[in-house]
Design a protein that fits this description.
Aspartate Aminotransferase, domain 1; Aspartate Aminotransferase, domain 2; homodimer; alpha/beta
């Protein structure tokens, strides 16, 4: 129940352990087509350039920036947590100019500030932001942000690492131009793969580059020879065969459940967890309207020894919860309810473990957490 | 029995299917230390910067070039197959100047040409070459090439994707400065991870860069915060937890067998395969002195329908062999004897399958292949 990797369903682990076959084997090519089709369904897009990058989410981020940013390009980057800062690093390392729009950690991106940044920089080429900030548990309004980008004739790059599969995400409906995600959050697949998608407009921008993409491994022009279209596949790199078996199975499971049902499940268990935490006297960091159900930032109460508590949860309950990052280190816990880990069993375990461990540290905790959570489940 | 991914031992697949735990979990950190120690043993190096890049070999290649090449740097690149060409792409995409030393595909790198390239370019900063060319089955003299680099005050970058675990490789003894490999060849681990190592001299060069590394994901300065030294690990990216379980198990198995024993096993089965192929009347592409035991390029005889034969092997024997690449497409097969796939059983299967399938195509094939191979095993 940390910020990811989340628990992996045994079906996905079993798929991953199937015998490795060749990355150009006809059976594998068929599976690649299925992975692409399922990624499109989960991301709600018809983008032809939709595929899993053969590396973790950070490489998916880099795939978006390295292909779309050329030296001198202005990119408006929203930062309201750790990952906006990483976006800035990407922009600058590829020769772009990052125009930062900063919001306090734990709050959503302020649309008015983004409008103002475009007003001051009408030549900005790209707007980049994080849909679901894993470092704080905040959801920003991706649809509204993409609309602002479109109104200003800019492309949008969206970090959907933690949102995909956990909350609503609609690539074509919202007009997202480039998006990267991760397998180890709400898809509940082992980490190591990053689904990405590029709109036709974004593909045109990549094709019209004045300079070569400063990466051979992530150049979409090359990778699409292997993942693109139908028919003959050209060798680019050796795909991580078993990791893709796992991704395939996790997408099958998500579509069996149904996207909307998965989003509803994340919300239900979040409501139960929240009710239990509040019954104990704990507070959530993020305003209710902007909360992610899959990542709950909880303020650490007075008198708690943070590191000792997290160690005790791991040792006594085999339960991982996340520490605060950056400005929030020592101030919050980050409790994940992601994918296969988003269950009633985990909610009740977490409430019980927190209650008992805080009491063992001599901290005053109100009773009634389990009852409050159970009431949510009774509806 | 293609050019990789090779067959994966069930022990490694079972390790990969263990439950996913956190990438900062104390148990996982302990395993990371073991992976590093075993990589050092297998590569015969004390380099502190020795770690698995969280992506396939192509990303390991990019990790070496993106960190060491700055705009304007001259890099002498040896090309005697596909992967030298990919090195050139890397050099040029990072602003370097590639000075190409070309040898015919299927032959080893000519040391005299490399000496001449340094004589003409005494300011070359790096010599880059492929130790074991997977596209042709050629071994070049890595020790002699590194000596030439040292004599010219240049760093060496070595592609050891197919050599690691299959033939002698001695990073410290040969004075290699930067090396990348892959998991899916003679380590017989699923594809997706690339072991790399950088000498102290190479690390100094990275630290003294005038420009930032044009990749956030592959910047060794950052990655080492997670993989480096002992003690506290800083979050960089989410490591591919299950893929590292698999790498750990494959390294345990290789060290159980013993490096020298593994090299001898690769040579033994290569000799048996060769004896069988020659008994059939087939010819190997590469001169005996330069042959890789783990990748056998076999000239396709007159009258054989290459694609139909490879399909028939796959359909009738569940046997994959590799097609020729680039200039060798349609002219050779590439038969892998790598790691867990390098067994007597596979040698005999391959000889039998080739003999019968060629005969079914109406091609004249001499009898006695199985006997000739068995004779090698009898010693």
């Amino acid at each position: 129940m940390g910020p990811g990797p989340s628990d992996v369903n045994p079906r996905v682990l079993a798929a991953m352990a199937r015998p490795t076959i060749g990355h150009l084997d006809p059976e594998f090519i068929t599976m690649m087509d299925e992975v692409k089709a399922m990624l499109k369904a989960v991301l709600k897009t018809n983008n032809e350039l939709t595929m899993p990058v053969s590396a973790p989410g950070s490489a998916g981020m880099e795939a978006c920036f390295v292909n779309l940013v050329e030296p001198g390009d202005k990119v408006i980057v929203c930062q309201n947590g750790v990952f906006g800062g990483r976006m800035r690093e990407n922009v600058e390392r590829f020769g772009g100019i990052a125009i930062m729009v900063e919001d306090e950690w734990g709050t959503a991106i302020d649309l008015a500030k983004v409008e103002a940044a475009f007003a001051a920089n009408p030549d900005a080429k790209i707007l980049a932001f994080v849909h679901a900030e894993t470092s704080t548990g905040v959801r920003s309004d991706a649809q509204a942000l993409c609309k602002i980008a479109q109104a200003n004739n800019a492309l949008s790059i969206v970090d959907a690492v933690t949102s995909m599969g956990g909350i609503e995400l609609d690539v074509d409906g919202w007009g997202i131009d480039a998006l990267y995600s991760g397998t180890q959050k709400c898809l509940s697949c082992p980490p190591g793969i990053s689904p990405v998608t590029f709109s036709a407009k974004a593909v045109e921008v990549v094709k019209a580059r004045k300079s070569k993409v400063p990466s051979w491994f992530l150049d979409t022009n090359l990778v699409m020879g292997y993942w693109g279209g139908s028919g003959k596949r050209a060798y680019h790199h050796t795909a991580p065969v078993n990791a893709l078996y796992a991704l395939h199975e996790s997408l099958v499971m998500l579509l069996e459940e149904g996207l909307e049902n998965a989003w509803a499940r994340h919300n239900l268990h979040h409501q139960a967890l929240k009710a239990g935490l509040e019954a104990m006297g704990l507070e959530l960091l993020v305003d209710e309207a902007d909360r992610l159900p899959q990542l709950n930032s909880v303020k650490i109460p007075e008198g708690v020894d943070d590191a000792a508590l997290r160690s005790a949860l791991l040792d006594n309950y085999s339960l991982e919860i996340g520490a605060g990052l950056g400005a929030l280190a020592g101030k919050v816990w980050r409790i994940g309810l992601m994918g296969a880990g988003c269950t009633r069993r985990n909610v009740m375990l977490c409430l019980d473990a927190l209650e008992n461990t805080m009491r063992a540290q001599g901290v005053q905790v109100n009773a009634g957490a389990a009852d409050a959570a159970a009431k949510v489940y009774q509806g």
